[in-house]
Design goal:
Largest sheet: 2 strands, antiparallel
Number of helices: 6
CATH architecture of the domain at 5-86 and 124-136: Orthogonal Bundle
CATH class of the domain at 5-86 and 124-136: Mainly Alpha
Oligomer: single chain
Helix content: 40-55%
Structural class: mainly alpha
Distance between the termini: 26 Å
Radius of gyration: 17 Å
Shape: elongated
Length: 138
């Protein structure tokens, strides 16, 4: 499992907006500058996050993006699930796998997938912004 650029940009965008949520709508150009990200690619990710219900877009002068919900209620798993699709280690679809691939999937990958899901479901966006190491990175 590897988190794609889309997933990484999406998480960084949400974390940045959570950190600056008291400032009202934030322009993507500001986020791009602070996070050293491509604004053009960030626009595509912001659109997905808006459609997915994580962001609100505010048009006009002083517009930008802001979190739609409470950072305490936004699970990292839900963000990655939207941006990455189902997060799994197994790459072969059931029914298209050899007997050994099936055994490995059922007895190894399936358990690993469940554990990874539990971890990401139990980490909120707010927890990421409160992490001691996070304050050194922004």
């Amino acid at each position: 499992m590897k988190i794609s650029t889309r997933g990484r940009y999406g998480l960084r965008l949400l974390v940045d907006l959570a950190e600056h949520r008291n400032e009202g709508p934030v322009a993507l150009s500001q986020v791009a500058r602070r996070q050293e990200l491509s604004e053009k690619y960030l626009q595509q990710v912001a659109l997905m996050l808006t459609r997915g219900g994580f962001l609100t877009s505010v048009k006009g002068s002083g517009g930008g993006y802001q979190l739609k919900g409470n950072p305490e209620k936004i699970a990292i798993y839900d963000v990655l699930d939207l941006l990455e699709g189902t997060i799994t280690f197994a790459e072969t679809a059931p029914g298209q796998e050899s007997a050994i691939e099936r055994v490995i999937r059922l007895h190894f990958y399936q358990n690993l997938d469940q554990e990874v899901r539990k971890v990401f479901e139990n980490i909120s966006l707010a927890e990421v912004t409160r992490a001691e190491w996070f304050t050194y990175m922004i």
